[in-house]
């Protein structure tokens, strides 16, 4: 069955088609959920919520633009809505230097370790870091998506980079002392 037919069948609440669509896109969307979630279990919950929203709103998809892009946006927005509801951005008034450089030498830090420490960032820092660095959104877009101001987005990004930089430096120091 073609993707177009699968989408049309989902629009009439065909559960078999919904299952097929889930199988087709769940791993890609789970990767997005994992990137924005605090842990694996929360990512699973976010994936389920995202698919509920996708199936609820699939009638709104008018075959204009990429379907995959459309469901990815819904997934990101579903996860971000959880954090907006938890008000993780309420108590922020930080002044942090904007241009913290984060140099990662590939031979020193594994990608798994890097993803782990990104996931351990406080919510407001992790979300802004992922949106800006990994997904390429502008501070203006991030501010709109998270319902914060642009300055808060910039401050949270700088703070995330600072935390990551310190964590990586501590890790390198530990690694060096273990090899001596």
UniProtKB/TrEMBL annotation:
GO biological process: DNA-templated transcription initiation
KW Transcription (keyword) present: yes
Positions of the RNA polymerase sigma-70 region domain: 21-87
Database matches in CDD domains: Sigma70_r4
Keyword Transit peptide among record annotations: no
Domain named RNA polymerase sigma factor 70 region 4 type: residues: 112-162
Keywords per UniProt: Sigma factor, Transcription, Transcription regulation
Pfam families, sorted: Sigma70_r2 (PF04542), Sigma70_r4_2 (PF08281)
InterPro entries xref list: RNA_pol_sigma-70-like, RNA_pol_sigma-70_dom, RNA_pol_sigma70_r2, RNA_pol_sigma70_r4_t2, RNA_pol_sigma_r2, RNA_pol_sigma_r3/r4-like, WH-like_DNA-bd_sf
GO molecular function: DNA binding; sigma factor activity
Domain of life: Bacteria
Family: Belongs to the sigma-70 factor family. ECF subfamily.
PANTHER family: RNA POLYMERASE ECF-TYPE SIGMA FACTO, RNA POLYMERASE SIGMA-70 FACTOR ECF SUBFAMILY
Protein name stated in the entry: RNA polymerase sigma-70 factor, ECF subfamily
Lineage of origin: Bacteria, Pseudomonadati, Bacteroidota, Flavobacteriia, Flavobacteriales
């Amino acid at each position: 069955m073609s993707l177009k037919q699968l989408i049309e069948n989902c629009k009439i609440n065909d559960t078999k088609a919904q299952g097929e669509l889930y199988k087709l896109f769940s791993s890609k969307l789970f990767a997005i959920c994992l990137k924005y979630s605090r842990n694996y279990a929360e990512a699973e919950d976010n994936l389920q919520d995202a698919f509920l929203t996708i199936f609820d709103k699939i009638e709104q998809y008018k075959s204009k633009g990429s379907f995959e892009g459309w469901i990815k946006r819904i997934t990101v927005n579903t996860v971000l809505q959880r954090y907006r509801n938890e008000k993780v951005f309420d108590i922020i008034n930080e002044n942090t230097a904007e241009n913290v450089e984060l140099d990662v030498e590939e031979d020193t830090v594994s990608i798994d370790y890097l993803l782990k420490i990104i996931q351990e960032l406080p919510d407001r820092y992790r979300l802004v870091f992922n949106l800006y660095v990994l997904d390429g959104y502008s501070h203006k877009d991030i501010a709109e998506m998270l319902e914060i101001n642009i300055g808060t987005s910039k401050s949270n990004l700088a703070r995330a980079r600072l935390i990551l930089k310190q964590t990586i430096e501590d890790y390198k120091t530990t690694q060096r002392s273990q090899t001596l």
